[in-house]
Specification:
The protein is an alpha/beta fold and 128 residues long. The protein contains 5 helices and 5 strands, in the order βαβαβαβαβα. It has a single domain, classed as Rossmann fold, CATH 3.40.50.2300. A 5-stranded parallel β-sheet has the order 2-1-3-4-5, sandwiched between helices.
Length: 128
Amino acid sequence: MTKVKPFVAVVDDDESVRRAMKRLLRSAGVPSDTFKSGDEFIEMFDSIPSYRPACVVLDIQMPGLNGLEVQRCLAGSGVPVIFITAHDETAVREQAFAGGAAGYLRKPFNDEVLIKAVRAAMSSTDKT
């Protein structure tokens, strides 16, 4: 049986952020899929049982399902979530960590910090 290479799902409503994140992750040797909304990602996640990213990088403020709502949808799945946001609010950060967030980065963030956070989150799920 072939093992699927671990990948990251990036969910952000800003196309330039999605493109930049995909490029950054690729440069670090991490494959990624991108989604323009939480709804689009959750539809894929729920409709294809084998679709399981090793980590999800989520924007908090998006139309439709926001990042915290997506995090709630993923609760119990074992998929770690790293939040990225331009609007850092203490209450939102606390809610994210209370929900089990693996990381919380404020935009603009340092590329190396993001890569380290993604690798740490991915290694936390790599139990093989």
